[in-house]
Write a structure and sequence with these properties.
Layout lengths: L3 E6 L4 H10 L5 H4 L6 E4 L4 E6 L4 H6 L5 E5 H7 L4 E5 L5 E7 L13 E5 L2 H11 L4 E5 L6 H5 L4 E6 L3 H5 L3 E9 L1 E5 L1 H6 L1 H12 L3
Parallel strand pairs: 1-3, 1-4, 7-8, 7-9
Antiparallel strand pairs: 2-3, 4-11, 5-11, 6-9, 6-10
Bound molecules: 1-O-pyrophosphono-5-O-phosphono-alpha-D-ribofuranose.
The site of 1-O-pyrophosphono-5-O-phosphono-alpha-D-ribofuranose (PRP) has 11 residues, from strand 9 and helix 7.
Length: about 210
């Protein structure tokens, strides 16, 4: 049978994702020290790992370039891709939240056109326009969004909060929780049928660890 291609998010989730495969009996020595390599082959298990930016994992899996992947639920909510989300892996836990200065607590729902700084524009729109029925302006940024309310770029932010340290150290608080986030195992819809035996076995080996 053809080899299995797995997309992994570089960064925060990377080490814990590798642990999952190691505990499933896969040799991860190369994967732990990839250098600049983007494809790591594990011939014994007939698996190839791709190391990609977190936001791109669902894209590789939806198009079938990767059969499976591990990615944060925050990315899945934002990307809204057509794929199977098969397991909540229970690590990388955090919240998607609206945050801002404490005085925004009473004022949040009173803005005519609230400005929101975020790396997650779709998630912010779905929540404020879809769920709350508010008019907003989304200001898309690539990081350090906690800065926005402090310098007047936006009134609030939509971002992930893990320990809460970044908010605290910048005088901000969680105003509303949007969703619970954690790492998820995702599978391409066609691969699930075409490589079912291999994928099902790997899912079972991972499930046993949870
Ligand atoms: C994330 C997030 C917050 C921070 C939350 O940023 O955007 O800034 O972590 O974590 P905490 O609650 O434990 O402080 P990341 O570290 O990914 O960097 P970025 O701002 O460059 O995206």
């Amino acid at each position: 049978m053809r080899m299995l291609n797995i997309a992994l998010a570089k960064g925060r989730l990377s080490d814990l994702s590798i642990d999952i495969f190691e505990n499933a009996g896969i040799d991860t020595t190369e994967l732990r020290n990839p250098g600049r390599k983007l494809i790591l082959e594990e011939p014994k298990s007939d698996i190839r790992f791709f190391l990609v930016k977190p936001g791109d994992v669902p894209t590789y899996v939806e198009y079938g370039a990767a059969d499976m992947g591990i990615v944060g639920k925050d990315t899945l909510l934002e990307e809204g891709r057509n794929l199977y989300e098969v397991l909540d892996l229970g690590f990388g836990k955090c919240q998607m939240a609206v945050a801002g200065p404490p005085e925004m607590k009473d004022r949040l729902n009173r803005f005519d056109r609230l400005r929101i700084g975020t790396k997650y524009p779709e998630t912010a729109r779905k929540y404020f326009e879809g769920v709350k029925g508010m008019q907003i302006e989304v200001i898309k940024l690539n990081g350090s969004v906690e800065l926005d309310p402090l310098v007047g770029l936006s009134e609030v932010i939509v971002d992930i909060v893990e320990s809460g340290k970044t908010l605290r150290e910048n005088g901000l608080v969680v105003l509303e929780k949007i969703a619970d986030i954690s790492a998820r195992l995702i599978v391409n819809r066609v691969s699930m049928k075409m490589k079912n035996e291999k994928i099902s076995k790997l899912i079972a080996d991972i499930k046993r660890q949870l």
